[in-house]
Design brief:
The protein is α+β, with helices and mostly antiparallel strands. Helices cover 33% and strands 14% of the residues. It has 11 helices and 12 strands. The protein has a 5-stranded antiparallel beta sheet with strand order 8-9-10-11-12, with no helix packed on it. A hairpin with a 5-residue loop joins β6 and β7.
Length: 396
C-alpha cells in the first residue's frame, strides 16, 4: 500500500520528469553502465535504511496540506484539510532566482517539514544549512524531488532489465508469482500513462514481450505448470484487459488487435490452432530453470513434459522436478505451495522439500534450504535448442 500512496502523492512531480526524452529501445551496455553509475551510489544507504530515499522527498510530511496559497508568483503558506497521506510541497516561486542552494541528497533532512512548511537548505552567503521559508528557495523544491524520482526511474529500468530473461521475457520467479508480477507491471504502467502521460510501455518494451510470453507456461488443458510456489490455475484475463485499456487510449489499433487475439487464445475452451502461435514445441528459460516440450495443444490428444530445477525465486528444493501431461490430465502434478502458505508446518515440512515435487531423495534425505535454491540444469556446456514460436513439425 505504501507504494500506491506514494504514487498518488507524487503525480505532480512525476509529470515534470515525464518531459524528459524517453529511451524506447532495449538497454545497451553503455546505457546499463550509465544507469548503474546513477543508482549504485545510493544502494548501500537504501539497503541499510529502506526509507532513506523516500524520506528525502520534499513533502508536507507533517501537515498533509491540501491547499496552497500564493502571493502573486510566490508561495505564501499551505493549509486546507488534512489529506490522508503526505502531499507534495509547492515550489517557492516560478523564478529560479534564490538565495539558497539545495543540499546533496546525503545532507537532506529526512521527513523535513514543520508548521510553516519550512525546508532546510544551504544559505548561499554563509554556506550554512538552515531552515528557511520556501518562498526564498526558487525552484529548488521541485528540483530535489525530480532528482529523487529520476533515481527511482533508473532503478526501475534496471530492475525490469535484470528480472526478465532477455530472450524468453520470462520473469525470474515461479509461475504463481511471475504471472502476478507481469500483471503488476501492466497495471502500474497503465496507471502512470493514464494519470501523467508517461508511456512506460514504450520505455520498457519487455512489459509487452512478457505478456505475450505468458502462454509458454500452459499445459494443453490451458492450466499453468505448477512448479515452485504456485497454485495451478488458468491465466488471468485481467492482465490483458488492463493492457487493452492502454492500447485503446493511445489509439494503438494493431496492439489492441493482437491483445484481443491473445485473450481469445488463452480461454479454457480455445481451439488448439488459436493457441499454437503463442507456444513452442521446446521452450527453455534459464533464469527460472524451466524446460518444456510439447507435441501440441490439443487437450486430449497431445503430450507435454515440464521439467524444472531450483534456480529462481519462490522455487523449491527440487533437483529435476517433472510434471507429465497426457490424455487431458497432468500426471504426477507438482504439489505446489500447499494450503497454509509459508507459515504453515505443511509448507515447511513438506511442500518446500523434495518429496512434494516428484524428485528423488538421496539416501532418504530430503532436508534442504527451502524457498530459494540457486541451482539450475547442468547442460555440459551445451545449449538447448532455441525457442521457436508457433508451428509443430517433426524433428529432422
Amino acid at each position: 500500500m505504501k507504494y500506491t500512496i506514494l504514487f498518488s502523492a507524487l503525480l505532480g512531480a512525476l509529470t515534470a520528469v515525464a518531459q524528459q526524452p524517453a529511451h524506447t529501445s532495449a538497454l545497451t551496455g553503455d546505457e546499463l553502465q550509465r544507469l548503474h553509475q546513477r543508482t549504485d551510489a545510493y544502494l548501500d544507504s537504501v539497503q541499510h535504511h529502506p526509507d532513506w530515499l523516500l524520506s528525502r522527498l520534499q513533502m508536507y510530511w507533517k501537515s498533509h496540506a491540501t491547499d496552497v496559497y500564493v502571493n502573486g508568483e510566490t508561495f505564501s503558506h499551505a493549509g486546507g484539510d488534512r489529506a490522508p497521506v503526505p502531499t507534495v510541497k509547492f515550489n517557492g516561486t516560478r523564478s529560479h532566482g534564490t538565495t539558497y542552494d539545495r543540499p546533496s541528497l546525503a545532507d537532506v533532512v529526512p521527513y523535513d517539514d514543520d508548521d510553516n512548511s519550512s525546508v532546510t537548505f544551504i544559505n548561499k552567503t554563509t554556506r550554512v544549512q538552515e531552515k528557511t521559508h520556501p518562498s526564498k528557495t526558487g525552484c529548488n523544491i521541485a528540483s530535489l524531488n525530480q532528482q529523487i524520482l529520476r533515481i527511482a526511474r533508473d532503478a526501475a529500468r534496471l530492475y525490469a532489465h535484470y528480472g526478465f530473461d532477455s530472450k524468453t521475457h520470462i520473469w525470474c520467479e515461479s509461475p504463481g508469482y511471475s504471472v502476478n508480477v507481469v500483471k503488476d507491471y501492466v497495471t502500474f504502467a497503465n496507471t502512470i500513462d493514464h494519470q501523467t502521460g508517461i508511456d512506460l510501455f514504450a520505455q520498457l518494451p519487455v512489459i509487452e514481450q512478457a505478456v505475450f510470453a505468458l502462454p509458454q507456461y500452459l499445459f494443453p488443458n490451458r492450466m499453468i505448470c505448477g512448479f515452485g510456489d504456485t497454485h495451478p490455475n488458468y491465466l488471468s484475463l485481467q492482465t490483458i484487459d488492463i493492457f487493452m485499456e492502454y492500447a485503446r487510449r493511445r489509439g494503438k489499433d494493431d496492439l489492441l488487435a493482437r491483445l484481443e487475439q491473445l485473450r481469445a487464445a488463452i480461454l479454457p475452451d480455445a481451439p488448439a490452432q488459436v493457441l499454437a502461435p503463442y507456444v513452442s514445441p521446446t521452450f527453455y528459460s534459464p533464469n527460472v530453470s524451466i524446460l518444456v516440450q510439447r507435441t501440441g495443444m490439443e487437450t486430449r490428444r497431445d503430450l507435454m513434459i515440464s521439467v524444472n530445477g531450483a534456480l529462481g525465486n519462490h522455487q523449491h528444493a527440487n533437483g529435476i522436478n517433472i510434471e507429465l501431461y497426457g490424455h487431458g490430465y497432468v500426471v504426477g502434478p507438482d504439489a505446489g505451495i500447499g494450503k497454509m502458505l509459508y507459515s504453515g508446518a505443511d509448507y515447511q515440512k513438506y511442500y518446500s522439500r523434495f518429496p512434494a515435487h516428484n524428485t528423488v531423495c538421496v539416501d532418504g534425505v530430503s532436508d534442504h534450504m527451502w524457498a530459494k535454491i540457486l541451482l539450475r540444469f547442468l547442460s555440459h556446456n551445451r545449449e538447448f535448442p532455441p525457442t521457436t514460436i508457433g508451428g509443430y513439425r517433426e524433428n529432422p
